[in-house]
Recover the amino acids of this structure.
DNA sequence: GATGAATGAGTATTCATTCAT
DNA sequence: CATGAATGAATACTCATTCAT
């Protein structure tokens, strides 16, 4: 549907992902992204008007991928509780497979509101809303307690996964694997909300 | 209990807390902190060798308070499950009462590792470990399932609260109050882990 | 013989020579050098990593010229005593023709060791050694007394010329000309050391 | 004749002599001089209005001593040529005994004109003039050639000694001693100018 | 489109000097 | 007299952005 983005554009996004993850947005120099992408500094400004536009584009691109992937995965299940389980596993696997991106979302997304006035992260909201929708569906089917407030539950569940991700991204070695972590979190949460 | 830090030192920390929360660490100018504290730029350097030392001191000071307060609150309960409930409520109330500090912890703490080499946030680990200890205690008393892995559970629980906090800090209006949020999260989590 | 340095590089060296001579290294601002060179402040940092690198480059460039020129001049004479005479005249003429450079060498070279750790002025040593070599040659040919210690004589002779130069550089008007001064110094020194 | 300077004043001069010799005027901090003198920063401003006044006072004090000492030494001889010999030996011995002061005179005196507008170093001129006077006296007594121009000769002779001093101050080890150096320089110069 | 040299606004930090105690 | 905490002007250096080639 989107026409294919130019190759240089993608090279810049890839280089920025690597550098931002490594050094953070502020400590990364435009010239470092250019070097990493194998192009001249000035070339970046043909594709992006300002440094912060690279970060925004990067968010949008990655989040779209993540969102599409998650929708596909959830679509494979019928049972809302199974969907929730799959959400957790898919999310954590994604983190494991995309550490750079995960680190940027963990770190830079959180401060982005400080320097990017009026940037609202729509994609991220949509991602969270996938959980909310599943919970509502579960409540309709009487699989999830009526007392559960979906907008709170989505944040609680996502927060649990997200904190787990932070640990994954920041620590070098881990005592347990992704599957175990996903299973544990699912177990707490599903027992906690199901009827 | 702590010997009183110099009045200027405290004024700088207070001014930095306000400014960092408002504009973020990088966007905040030393001169803005000085103006907010009602002192000259140079005076800051009598108390802090570098800009980043203000942020570090701020973390340490605030986390110590938070940690002390939480220990006091938990100490009021005997039952591990009641301790967990109190943890959640205390944490969220703290966030509500200290939005500036909460925002800094949410935002700046996460990126701090990027620009502060070898700064390890010991206090934060200790805070998380309070949860782990409660869970182990609960398991000993047969109140919490043996299958629960404490180091995963602490992150899941804290993550849930933390994501809730983020929402609290960033949004202007909320559909429900802190007590409701705390009750919901406790309900999910405690049902999820208790025997 | 040297490949041509970039034009901007040369403009910076020329501007720095003028400014350092006029105000001294410490009192000269980077922005003044830039203005004098007709470029932006930042441009200087494309060519030099630090302010002191300009001074070092300036020394090296000038001393190389001076050294090459002196070797050429000395080469024109066969007799060691004639070489010494030509050294004096060439040195003083050089000072007269390059007051700015002379002033920098007089003033800044002397303090350079204070702020430029491990900068050793090799070219300057080589320049002094030209005198030492001539004296040794003169001793071999029995034109100069064996008792003369070349390493002392070179300093005595150079020092005499150098003090003369200082007077030339610092005073506005002079009672006698360069040729007279050179002749006088040669006369004292050559009578003093010849057999 | 001078009323005795206050003890603190002398302590400051002594501390400044040490620090300026070690690090140079510009690199020396007022606070370093104060620490070295064992007093508070502010106290320096009771005795000196500005940093550069310390350097000027230091010059004046030291040069007065040097001048008085040299006059006394020269007064011990009757023969102009013997006076010259004694000048050289006295000067070099002084350097050897007062390395800090020697270094300051070598280095800082030379750049002082850059930052001290209208500071004219009268004492230094008087010191040089001692040589000129001896030469004139020698010419009157027919001991020194009439062709010798005293104002050139004084600079040549002083320059030779001064360059020797620089070597003494800057080098750690020396191949020959002060007496040898003085004897050599005297030998060149006296043979060079005597009738 | 692509380049990379040049720009110059922007800022953390220093340190001589002051002055209330 | 002596202090030393406070001041704030001053400046080297950085780096996002531009634009002539």
């Amino acid at each position: 549907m989107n026409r294919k983005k130019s190759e240089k554009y993608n090279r810049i996004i890839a280089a920025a992902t690597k550098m931002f993850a490594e050094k953070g947005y502020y400590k990364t120099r435009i010239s470092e992204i250019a070097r990493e992408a194998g192009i001249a500094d000035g070339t970046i400004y043909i594709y992006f008007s300002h440094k912060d536009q690279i970060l925004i584009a990067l968010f949008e691109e990655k989040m779209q991928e993540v969102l599409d992937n998650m929708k596909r995965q959830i679509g494979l299940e019928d049972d809302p509780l199974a969907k929730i389980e799959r959400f957790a596993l898919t999310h954590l696997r994604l983190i494991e497979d995309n550490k750079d991106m995960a680190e940027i979302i963990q770190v830079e997304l959180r401060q982005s509101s400080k320097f990017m006035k009026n940037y609202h992260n729509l994609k991220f909201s949509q991602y969270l809303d996938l959980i909310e929708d599943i919970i509502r569906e579960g409540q309709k089917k009487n699989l999830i307690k009526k007392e559960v407030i979906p907008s709170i539950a989505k944040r609680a569940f996502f927060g649990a996964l997200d904190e787990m991700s932070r640990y994954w991204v920041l620590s070098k070695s881990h005592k347990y694997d992704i599957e175990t972590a996903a299973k544990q979190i699912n177990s707490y949460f599903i027992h906690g909300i199901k009827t």
Observations:
- Chain C has a mean pLDDT of 90.
- Chains C and A do not touch (no CB pair under 8 Å).
